[in-house]
Specification:
Blueprint (H helix, E strand, L loop, with lengths): L1 H14 L7 H5 L10 H10 L9 E13 L8 E11 L11 E8 L2 E7 L6 H14 L6
Antiparallel strand pairs: 1-2, 2-3, 3-4
Amino acid sequence: MKRFLLFVLVAAALAGCDTTVKKSELESVDYGPRPQYWQAEIRDYLKIRLTDPAAAIVEFRAGPTQLYQRETPLRKKEWGWAVCVWVNDKNKQGAFDGFYPMSVFIRNEKIEHVNGGPDDDNLLGNRYAREHCEQLGAPFKK
């Protein structure tokens, strides 16, 4: 029963999160210069988080493009040069599980925030990753 209540609360919170970004919010932050080494930075990030980094399939689907993530009750404000990445990693049994999306925010050649992926594999993180990938031009359909 407690799990069901928690699920209902999380679902209600997700439904109430307005992620629409206002023009004034977009103009209020400094994105910094467009990153040059973003692919290497993302691969290094994944290398220590994936089950089998050597065999994993990492596809850079869109970006880097300036993107702003509005603050909500469940996520803090993020901005930067965003990249949509699709990853297919092996599970502990050695089989591929299928692709999942990630959205990665980079500022000053450094990863500032990641939605989805190994460190944020939950309902909210996956929702943001899918939404950002769609905004960046690489909608994730499973």
